[in-house]
Amino acid sequence: MDQATLGLLLYVLGLANLAAIYAVMALGLNLNWGVTGLFNAGVAGFFAVGAYTSVILTAPDSPHFLGGFDLPLPVGMVAAMLVSGLIALAIGAATIRLRSDYLAIGTIGIAEILRLVLKNEEWLTNGVRGITTIPRPFVAETALVSELSYLAMTLAILLVLYVLLEAALNSPWGRMMRAIRDSETTAAAAGKNVDARRLEAFVLGSMLMGLGGALFAHYLRYIGPEATEPVTTTFLVWVMLIAGGSGNNRGAILGAFVIWTIWSATELLTRQLPPEWAVRASYLRIFLIGLLLQVVLQRYSRGLLPERNPAERGATGPQDRTL
Amino acid sequence: MLEFVNLYLVNGIVLGCVYALGAIGITMIFGILRFGHFAHGDMMTAGAYIALALVWASGMPVLWVLPAAMLLTAALGAGLHWAFYRPLDTGTGSTIVIVIASFGVALMLRSAVQLFFGVDITTYQRGFQTPIWIADTIRILPRHLWIIGLTIALVVALHLFLTRSRLGKAMRAMSDNRALARISGIGTMRVVLAAWAVGGALAAAGGVFLGIDTQLSTQMGWNLLLPMFAAAVLGGIGNPVGAALGALVVGVAEELVTFPWFGEPLLSPAYKSAVSFAILVALLVWRPTGLTRGRVF
Q1: Contacts of B88 in chain A (CB under 8 A)
Q2: Residue B243 and residue B236: Cα distance in Å, rounded?
Q3: Nearest of A180, A208, A202, A181 to residue A89 by alpha carbon
Q4: pLDDT truncated to tens, each residue of chain A (323 aa)?
Q5: Is residue B87 part of a domain?
Q6: A109/B104 Cβ within 8 A
Q7: A116–B271 C-beta distance less than 8 A
């Protein structure tokens, strides 16, 4: 294999790795928004908490941040999910019974507080300089094997999550969640504990975002407070879910791959520009991704793979697809 | 004690004025259109930079171009509604999709400002103001006097508009009960546009005042969002004067926690914005109706 092909292959593998990580988060957001109708505007906060939790638990000892626990990676990932879930539990308990707008501002708030903590508590996180001594699993002799092994791991995690979530959504639990989303009053009248179920979905979805953060940090082997920047994390995940088809797990995964490819491809394009334009073009990219969201919301609000009613899934033939 | 007034209380009041001008728009839009407008902070950024462009173009001091910046931002608000929010209003009362859209609009506004003005921090005019003394005890910067005075004037004017003019009364009616207002013959479109125009104009004033007080940065508006929502909830959603008072409380509270009450600041200034978050969460848990016992949506 010559150098150019290898370079391209590594680029595609890197793209797939990050897209798969974003897909984990999109699945989490789908559980929040797509299935239960909860507006989580703090994806970046849960992502960052997951990333830092796993990094601190698994990194070698360092004078620059809290570390030296040297725990195995799976422990870090599980802890990442637990800590994200606990934070979601706290903020959700306060705001889940109110209108979605309040949950949105509450999650923006928690993301903002987490950003301040991660930036200012140098003893914990090495502050704005970030952490660079993050262990990465499956590092092999060649970059190709390393990339492939990591991708195998993220895809395996993604597959397990997909199977579990599909099973959950097709179960009575999933139907109840959709019922709550579509009509809170009816669900409550049918005796469902709306607030408790919502809190469940909120915590579980946020845990997946924490897991995404852990996968991200161990893949890039770097994490800094800019990870909490709402643009690249919260917003991209939202666009992924809505463009892919909220309510549909496959849609969330497809959306993650499609949007991440577009996002990365436009970055390649802007890199070709002369430096004085390249900086401006990066803002144009953000502007256009914002515009893309508006177009999707107004014209293609069901996304690439629209949500399907479980009753329809069992049905055969297109004549039943009228709902 | 004087150190406290001059270095902390005045700053807190000025900050409260900036929050007030944004929180009024947020609470009005929430009341009339029933959604949290997450692009409001970035609309303030846009207003501040529109004023900067006008200063560059005309060479006049920023307070002279303020009315023009307010008009342009009012038009921007109405334009945002027409292009991005109205198409998503299904009329069924479900507005959460509009909240998502406003999140995207926030990003678009900010990146548009970054595209045209770059990300470097800038100011309207360089220079140093000497403080003036009031009654030989209170030391205050002229720009702080301007900000406080103009904010009071704007809030009083808004209050008169809402309580005396037909359009203002229609806006309050719409905020109280949309269906009832509509069957009484109040035109929805006029009221909605008025809300965006007033909200946009005040947002521009808030953005410009923050720019005068400190500096202009493309992140400035986004960072205001949390305290402004806290102020709107504190004052009771849909109550503009309540939001202004709530903003004053939040602004002063943020400064007070950094005052060395017991030799050390209660909270490191880096965590100032945690104060508005704490206020917000406490309100949502114990009193979502706000201090004035308004409504909860």
Answers
A1: 297-298
A2: 7
A3: A202
A4: 788 899 899 999 999 999 999 999 999 999 999 999 899 999 999 999 999 999 999 988 888 888 778 889 999 999 999 999 999 999 898 888 877 788 888 888 888 888 888 888 888 888 888 888 888 888 888 889 999 999 999 999 999 999 999 999 999 999 999 999 888 889 999 989 999 999 999 999 999 999 999 999 999 998 888 877 776 789 999 999 999 999 999 999 999 999 999 999 888 888 888 877 777 888 898 899 999 999 999 998 889 999 877 555 544 434 433 33
A5: yes
A6: no
A7: yes
Q: Is B34 left (phi over 0), alpha (psi -120 to 50) or beta?
A: left
Neighbouring residues of A27: CB distance < 8 A, sequence distance ≥ 6: A158, A161, A162, A165, A208, A249, A252, A253
| Chain B contact set for A91 (CB, 8 A) | 281
> Is there a domain that residue B129 lies in?
no
Q: Does A95 touch chain B (CB under 8 A)?
A: yes
CA distance A79 to chain B (A): 25
> Is residue A283 situated within a structural domain?
no
Whether the CB of A29 is below 8 Å from some CB of chain B: the reply is no
Residue ranges making up the domain that contains A192: 11-229
In a domain, A265, yes or no: no
Residue position matching structure tokens 């307010």: B70
How many folded domains does chain B comprise? 1
CB atoms within 10 A of CB A306: 14
In a domain, B124, yes or no: no
Q: How many domains, chain A? A: 1
Say if A295 is an interface residue toward chain B (CB within 8 Å).
no
Contact across the interface for B115 and A95, Cβ inside 8 Å: no
Residue B101 structural domain: 2-114+140-286
Query: Where do the H-state alpha helices sit in chain B?
Result: 2-4, 10-33, 40-58, 62-80, 96-117, 142-164, 166-176, 178-183, 188-213, 220-234, 240-256, 272-286
Q: Assess if residue A318 is contained within a domain.
A: no
Contact flag B108-A41 (C-beta cutoff 8 Å): no
Residue B27 CB contacts under 8 Å (≥ 6 apart), including other chains: B232, B235, B236, B237, B238, B239, B240, B242, B243
Place of tokens 């019922």: A179
Query: Smallest Cα–Cα separation from B36: which of A171, A109, A263?
Result: A109
Distance from CA of A99 to the nearest CA of B (A): 7
User: What CATH number did the domain enclosing B20 receive?
Assistant: 1.10.3470
B112 chain-A contacts, CB cut-off 8 A: 283, 287
Q: Is residue B25 part of a domain?
A: yes
- Length of chain A in terms of residues written: 323
Q: Is residue A264 part of a domain?
A: no
Residue A115 burial (10 A CB sphere; 0-12, 13-18, 19+)? buried
Per-residue confidence (pLDDT) for residue A32, from 0 to 100: 94
How far, in Å, CA of A175 to CA of B39, rounded? 34
Q: Tell me if residue B118 falls in helix, strand or coil.
A: coil
Burial B222-240 (b: 16+ CB within 10 A, else e): bebbbbbbbbbbbbbbbbb
Q: Taking Cα atoms as reference points, which of A138, A142, A139, A137 lies closest to residue A6?
A: A142
